[in-house]
């Protein structure tokens, strides 16, 4: 079922996040493969809030506080699954803050993404961005994890969270409020550039070949590279002189050549300095069985820093 927030959902989500923060709830989201393995080993109903909001396990109405159940019903955050109820949202922790996103499995085209890439992306921002009281733009913000983490860590005073997914921006707005940071959400797809520049621009674009064309995953043509290249080129128009562009992204490697880095080197003008490093040499190895990746040796997770202009 698709999660369509009813009018009451705003207040309910705010209350739910505040409640989980107060309870010191925490959950680290693993890869979908690890999540699936966990569910196969644990074919049972939920016994804890982590089971419900982390592992997306179904639960019996008798298993949770009546007022929490009423809250979830009011927000339409659950649906029946046989005799049990299935959560439609997940809540994950990152750097001491909580982020609401879509429940497992994330099959819908507009599912709200959060995963190991999000943790690597946020860690890259923490490492590379200096402290600042500037304004950061997070392109393809999803749950808002990148921009929100940057502001929480003093890398910017405020964040603009941009995405084409209305549900993601709705959740990102709530995540920013729960983290108590200054942020605004912008629904856009970068075909028209925002009429503004930023002190830093960060992104974790979709980069896979995805037959289902899920917004969080499908990177477009050229083995999933096109979106990352066009967002990076757009970012060169959106960053202030002296500011930083940070791109966290997966890249196919063919005969030793890291394709995303090679394409960006060819397409960025000489006024830009680019430094690319491998954060992880081998991610999503199981995808290499796909025909589209037949000449790809591996997919590397890259951290790319661009400055100049
Ligand atoms: C891999 S997810 C990353 C989400 C988040 N930044 C994170 O690290 O968890 C990519 C995000 O890009 C968004 N997206 C896809 N195509 C887009 C487009 N044309 N314009 C803006 N955002 C887009 C998706 O909706 C999704 O939220």
UniProtKB/TrEMBL annotation:
Pfam families: MTS. This is Methylase of polypeptide chain release factors. Keywords: Cytoplasm, Methyltransferase, rRNA processing, S-adenosyl-L-methionine, Transferase. One of its GO terms (molecular function) is nucleic acid binding. The keyword Cell membrane does not apply. Residues 123-212 form the Methyltransferase small domain. GO terms for biological process: methylation; rRNA processing. It comes from the Bacteria. It comes from Allosphingosinicella indica.
